[in-house]
Structures are given as C-alpha cells and as structure tokens.
Design brief:
By secondary structure, the chain is of the alpha+beta class. Helices cover about 55% and strands about 20% of the residues. The protein is elongated and about 95 Å long.
Length: about 325
C-alpha cells in the first residue's frame, strides 16, 4: 500500500514539474519591452539567436543598424541645398561620421540578462541605452564640430581680403557639413538638440548667402605665362566665372598662372604641362593657390606641336579641379 502511495506521489510531483515547465516564466522585457523601455526615454532592440553570446551580438548590431540607418536618412534629406561641385564624397563622409557617432553611443549600451526559452529553444537579449546618458556622451562631439565651424566663420567675417574671406567661407561650409551630421545624429538621441544648437545652425545655413555677397567684392585679372592662344587663360576665366567671381582686365585681385611644360627628349619631344596659380588679393598678398598637371604626356616631333596638343589636356584638368568647392556653395 505504501509503495502504491509513493508511486502516486511521485507521479503527482512529476505532473506538477511538467506543468511548471510547460508554463515557463517569460521575462517581462521579452513580452512587454516596448512598455518597459519607452521610445521617449530609450533606444532599445530585442533580438534572438541560437546562443547567449550570439543573441547579445545580434541585439547590439540591431541598435547600431537603427542608428546608422536613421542618421543617414535624416542627413541625406537635409543636403538638398548642395550640388555636386566640390562635394562628391559627401555620402562617404556622412557614413564615416555616423559610424563614429554610433561607436560613441554604443559605449553607453546596456543589456538585459540573456534568457533562454526552453519551449522555442532560442536565446533572447535586449540591448538598450538611456537617451539622456547617451546625449551626455554625444554632445562633446557636436560641440567640437561646432567649434571648428565657428572658428572659420570668425575668420571669414574678420577678414579684410575679399577672396581670402571667400576661402574661409568655403572652409566654414565644409566644416558645417560635419556639424550638421553630428547634429542630425544628436537629434536621434535628444529631441532638444536643435534648440541647443539653434544659433550655430542658423549661422551655418547663412553661409551660402554670405559667400555670394562676398564674391561681389571680388574681381579677378588673370595673368598667364607660357600660354598658347589663351587656352589656359580661357579655362581659368570660365572657372572663376562659374564660381561666381567676376573676371576683368582691371580686376583688383590678380590670378598669376605659370605653365611648366616639363619637356623630355628632342626627337620626338614629350611634354606633360603643369600649372601653378597664385591668387593675390587687393593688398597684393597671396590669398590662395592651386596646382595641377595634365593627366598624360603628349609627344610630337616639335616642341611647338607638342605644346599645342598638350595644353587642351591641361585645360581639361583645370575644368575638373580648379576652384573646386567654391562653385558648389549656393544660397
């Protein structure tokens, strides 16, 4: 009889254990993580994987993916004012900036204790970070990029040489792109980011119109040594005008261009011309410079013929590279 009672008790205990196992306790952060980690306070991502470590890595990657995707899409949407001139590498710069910002934020990442579902036979892990804590780590990066931009703005607005001021405005606009990218990222972390940096953002957005106004104070006279049929002078004049600078014979600024043929041999002779341009401002001081050379050598049985054939190739290089960046800034 005792043996029968013991058997019944064992079966009863097994049934209880089986029932408990069948109804495994699922952590609240698995079933209700959106409520426990609300979006206004946290960035959080829940992931599953076959192992504990893989679940943690998957959750980390999910957060990083969310941040990179959103910062890139926001930044792209705010770049409509820019055209291709001088900004061909903007997307790679944005991606690099986003990666750096994401890496900084991931230092603030926290995790739930990974949980294994016996029923599903998979691991769960939630990666999350507190927006306020992440903002504390992000704001120094935004401040640093803001400072670089503001330094160029101060130089531009305190410069007496109009052409050099234009160069500083160009630098300010380029550094403003880094500032915008950092600010776009900061906005994902903290919705108050725009308000914190509103004044600097407004100054950055004013750069194109300030540059356009400053260009009105610049007129350029071009002096070109070693040119033939004004091939290079014409290319330089076209680029100055495309960039918004007036070209005239009595210009207050002077662009002094010198062509070096770099001739080799005699029969035939090969040339690969190089160009050096120095821009002198209204005080006579050098304010900007540019160097380039033809992409390839040109050969002929006379130096005159080789030069005549090579200079158009040098002009092509000028068309592609001279004053790069100035023409890409539009109000």
């Amino acid at each position: 009889m005792k043996a029968k009672c013991c058997l019944i008790q064992c079966l009863f205990l097994c049934l209880i254990c089986f029932s408990a196992a069948a109804k495994e306790r699922v952590p609240a952060w698995v079933t209700d993580w959106r409520t426990l980690y609300p979006n206004e306070k946290y960035v959080a991502q829940l992931e599953t994987a076959p192992s504990e470590q893989e679940a943690k890595v998957a959750a980390t990657n999910a957060v990083a993916r969310y941040l990179r995707t959103n910062v890139s899409s926001v930044t792209d949407a705010k770049r409509t004012m820019k055209n291709s001139g001088g900004f061909t590498d903007v997307q790679s710069e944005i991606s690099q900036s986003a990666t750096i910002s994401v890496d900084v934020t991931l230092r603030a990442l926290e995790y739930t204790q990974p949980w294994f579902s016996k029923k599903e036979k998979i691991w769960y892990c939630l990666a999350y970070f507190n927006r306020d804590k992440a903002w504390e780590q992000t704001i120094p990066d935004v401040r640093a990029k803001e400072a670089v931009f503001l330094s160029f703005m101060e130089k531009a607005q305190g410069e007496n040489e109009p052409f050099r001021a234009c160069a500083y405005y160009k630098n300010a606009w380029e550094s403003a792109q880094d500032f915008f990218s950092a600010l776009d990222y900061g906005r994902l972390i903290n919705s108050e980011a725009d308000a914190v940096f509103a004044e600097s953002k407004a100054r950055a957005l004013s750069v194109p119109s300030l540059l356009a106004e400053q260009k009105k104070n610049v007129s350029v006279r071009i002096e070109c040594i070693g040119d033939t049929n004004e091939i290079i002078r014409s290319a330089l004049a076209r680029k100055f005008e495309e960039a918004g600078f007036a070209v005239s014979e009595d210009g207050r600024c002077v662009a002094k261009a010198k062509i070096d043929l770099n001739a080799e041999g005699s029969d035939p002779v090969a040339v690969r011309p190089a160009l050096t341009v120095t821009v002198h401002g209204i005080t006579g001081a050098a304010v900007d410079s540019f160097q380039c050379r033809a992409e390839e050598k040109t050969s002929a049985y006379s130096l005159e013929t080789a030069t005549r054939r090579a200079l158009p190739k040098l002009a092509e290089t000028v068309n592609g590279q001279f004053l790069q960046g100035y023409e890409g800034i539009r109000p």
